[in-house]
Amino acid sequence: MSSAESRRLDTQAVHAGRPRSAPDFTPTVTPIHPSATYRYASLEELDQVFAGTREGYVYARYGNPTVAAFEDAVATLEGGESALAFASGMAAIHASLLAVGARSASAVVAAQDVYGATHTLLSQLMTSQGVTVRFVDAGDLNAVGAACDELRPVALLVESISNPLLKVADLPALADIAREHGARFLVDSTFATPHLVRPLELGADIVIHSATKYLAGHGDVLGGVVVTSEALHAELFELLKMTGGNLAPQEAWLALRGMRTLALRMQRHCHNALSVAEWLQDHPRVTRVIYPGLSDHPQHLLAKELFEEGAFGGIVSFEIADAGQQEVFRFFEALALCLPATTLGDVHSLLLYPAHSSHRSLTREERARIGISEGLVRISVGIEAVEDVLADLEQALAALT
Ligand SMILES: *Cc1c(COP(=O)(O)O)cnc(C)c1O
Predict the structure, then answer these.
(1) 388, burial (CB in 10 Å: exposed 0-12, middle 13-18, buried 19+)
(2) Would you say the pTM of this structure is higher than 0.70?
């Protein structure tokens, strides 16, 4: 009975300004849709959406148009059938493991140098739930094969480029091993991005990203995404609806916005990283430089074969001569442009000290055994003018003498 104008202010405050009908214009940019739910012209249509016989949205945990746009974009860039976005890279990894059947009495084989939180997820949570987890050197194909022979795992999980030693995974060979043993091959490709390599084309079943890093690219989003076949997508979707680790629409919008410049940023990250690596090689205070684009990197030829021409990623690790924690801290504190901070893949250059962050929980001896010395530093090279990054590194290294 009451027209909109005659309603009380209390009611107007709640209802005024709602969309009245579908617009007949199309924005050129995907809008942010914060709506938790949706209306349809008839309840019959809503019923069809619930039944899955009509495309549409009903409730945010089941899907959101802004998030779907981000998912479409990542699936396209990775050459996958579909993608599903999560609230973080870790939520994406956890859901992927569950989707392929990591349950009590099953087994998972993973690269020993996976991301720290992934290592903890496997060695603590998954193990406590009855999953047998075996960590192997993913560069030793015989060891991977032997672990798969013994355990018949549901999943083989590796990173396309490892952290912080930047080992490049032989994705086609590992995919063969997984297939021969009936395991799904999961690749965390956060460090490589689809600009360097598209693991699904090389035999991976699932590609995972922490979108927090290069995909979003500006250090202002926490997000994760999983790219799969339609069949695995259905498993993941059921899990997401049940457990609710959804990416929020605002975050999806920022990530999609960031991805528009992924190719440009990656070209610059790769170019700058190679310049930094070559410059560090000639620096008297630096004893070792690790970068897949250097000819002395153990998997340089593999990287050339697998990666986009001339692209080796934006991360460089290096060892400062005779440095322990005290010297590394002094070096970090002397930086004036590059930021000492625990993330990577942002537009600005970031430095991290593995011995006191990502690999802090290991003893000095354990770190030494896997090749992480007390003087090892990781730089995520940004898209600044590389001369300015080099000048900052130069003056900060000079502060050590
Ligand atoms: C950061 C990162 C993760 C975890 O992602 P979050 O978005 O922080 O949850 C997983 N794997 C790799 C390789 C990462 O760098």
Answers:
(1) middle
(2) yes
